[in-house]
Structure to design on (405 residues):
């Protein structure tokens, strides 16, 4: 038997990772992975939005010599906490510099929403492999990101648990996307899976923030409750695996044990399973194509007894239909769906609109948009994104003023 250290040096060299969005839920899990397999993973750069104390703690723990704080007004405070030997960058520029630093092999993008798009493209430009946790990037500009990665010959490994599962299932020797008959994304169904449709309009923020199986950031937890998270994941899968939308299915699996499945044309289905802990997909992205022993809990099937599946309630939760429509329409429409959803979720989190309004705002914003096909250009996508945000904000205001009268 080899000990961990020997095992790692035998099969893989230590990967040097930059984490953009290190103080969020995924970033925190990534540091757990780094503590668990220190022989295989070294954190060389960290970036956070504004959480100075958490970033300083992480810097001390990892020994990272270069870090970034997006909010430049926090630089001095951060410098006092980490001392003079750490290089502190700020703003967008800081993210680009970290994404391209010589000392890194891989960049983990775990910034909330679409703010990670340009840093991701910068990392690809500098030939860094990417671990992508921010699905919004691929929803918005999947074609551009995938094309850029292919051109530079860098690997892009999804950290989203479903897509990481599919990525693992596809490590078999099938030779072309035509041999895949279906990607089957599993969904927990969220906290309102069994609620009557009429009751959904009364959902409170507190109720929506309680996810039954996964512990995650706020935005994604709301997205899981509306099923927009699964809708975004359908579009994300479309780009990551180059499979048309009609081959992407969703099945509700409240236990979150099977993280997703691939069905091949011969009818065989591969599934990836584990307990629901984001450390599994993060570690796989770091150690790919190798497997490394860790301290994560193993599954006890006898204790589990059974695995349970059911169809999603598309009538009560229209997010899946809207996402299928956006993904099939393609062009700028997925960016519009994503932007409208971000605005609507933010409004819901500030108690300005109701839970079911989120679907209405996304639907109305999509209806108002005429899709453009950007042919590899980022500008039309960014423009559609900005217009959709304005449109969605206006619809939020209309809803608010109707309610207050
Ligand atoms: Mg997911």
């Amino acid at each position: 038997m080899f000990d961990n250290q020997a095992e790692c040096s035998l099969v893989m060299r230590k990967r040097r990772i930059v984490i953009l969005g290190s103080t969020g839920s995924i970033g925190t899990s990534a540091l757990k992975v780094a503590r668990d397999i220190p022989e295989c993973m070294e954190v060389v750069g960290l970036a956070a939005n504004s959480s100075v104390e958490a970033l300083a703690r992480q810097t001390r723990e990892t020994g990272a010599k270069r870090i970034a704080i997006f909010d430049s007004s926090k630089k001095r405070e951060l410098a006092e906490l980490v001392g003079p030997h750490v290089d502190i960058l700020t703003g967008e520029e800081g993210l680009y510099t970290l994404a391209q630093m010589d000392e890194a092999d891989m960049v983990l993008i775990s910034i909330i929403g679409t703010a990670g798009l340009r840093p991701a493209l910068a990392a690809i430009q500098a030939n860094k492999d990417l671990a992508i946790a921010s699905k919004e990037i691929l929803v918005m500009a999947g074609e551009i990101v995938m094309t850029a990665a292919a051109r530079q010959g860098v690997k892009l490994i999804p950290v989203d648990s479903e897509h990481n599962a599919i990525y693992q299932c596809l490590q078999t020797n099938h030779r072309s996307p035509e041999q895949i008959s279906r990607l089957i994304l599993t969904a927990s169904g969220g906290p309102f899976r069994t609620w009557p449709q009429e009751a959904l309009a009364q959902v409170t923020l507190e109720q929506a923030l309680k996810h039954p199986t996964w512990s995650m950031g706020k935005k994604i937890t709301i997205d899981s409750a509306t099923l927009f998270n699964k809708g975004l994941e359908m579009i994300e899968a479309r780009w990551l695996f180059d499979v048309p939308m009609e081959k992407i299915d969703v099945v509700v699996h409240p236990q979150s044990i099977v993280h997703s499945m691939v069905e091949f044309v011969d009818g065989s289905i591969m599934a990836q399973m584990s307990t629901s802990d984001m450390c599994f997909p993060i570690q796989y992205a770091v150690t790919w194509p190798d497997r490394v022993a860790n301290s994560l809990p193993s599954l006890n099937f006898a204790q589990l007894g059974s695995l349970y599946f059911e169809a999603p309630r598309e009538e009560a939760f229209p997010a899946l239909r809207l996402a299928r429509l956006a993904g099939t329409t393609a062009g700028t429409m997925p960016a519009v769906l994503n932007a409208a959803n971000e605005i609507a979720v933010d409004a819901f989190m500030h108690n300005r609109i109701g839970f079911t309004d989120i679907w209405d705002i996304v639907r109305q914003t999509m209806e108002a948009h005429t899709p453009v096909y950007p042919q590899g250009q980022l500008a039309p996508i960014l423009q559609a994104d900005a217009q959709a945000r304005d449109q969605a904000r206006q619809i939020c205001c209309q809803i608010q003023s109707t309610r207050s009268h």
